[in-house]
Amino acid sequence: MVKIYGARLILRIAVLVTAILMYLTDRNSLFFSKGLGLEQGIQPLHILWLIFAAGMVHKFFPQKIASMGCRKQFKSTYAPSEREPDRADMAAWIKAENGAARKVLAVWVALHVALALLYDAKLLGESEILLLSLIYYVCDLICVLFYCPFQSLIMKNRCCVTCRIFNWDSMMMVTPLILVPSFFSWSLGLIAFMVLIRWEVTYRRHPLRFSDACNKNLHCTHCRERLCVLKRSVHVQ
User: Other C-beta atoms within 10 Å of 131: how many?
Assistant: First the structure.
């Protein structure tokens, strides 16, 4: 799994570098509010839209090339622990997890209120907004493989496999885009919102699937991904 996610990170960096080169050459080429018409054939923005959309749609299905952090929402990946969880302990765990998630949400909203003000003041343009979204796209996997500030500073989860907000990444990635009304931004925003709603509804209805105390597939002893290896080496240094 480390190799799969490492390869994905390299591809995402390549996409970001390509976009930066386009920006330096002609920043208008990153204007996505003009729509996705095919009058001039397939353009880089068409390909980028497909990359973003495909990356989000695959989260609706329990694919083995995805981390258990993403797949734990599905019934097929739930392996109940032998010991019945204590209701009081589960209630306390859910409360703590939701509280930490709300803190992340508050930070994210505050950050993007500031971003909206910068955009409204014309200090950031449409091209810069798209580049920021692509930076998030890359940072998503940096958080998985190397260091995640949300994990270390707020959520305090053991690893990505047990992360309460693992599938928030799609909505986070497209948040800047929503500032610019267009088919490109709002269609991606809709897909990301559906991914988020699916995740949150499942968490509310089946919280045991998300708990390493209740789902054996989230135990370290059952983990075959070892996505935490690089994070550990970084932390040791």
Answer: 20
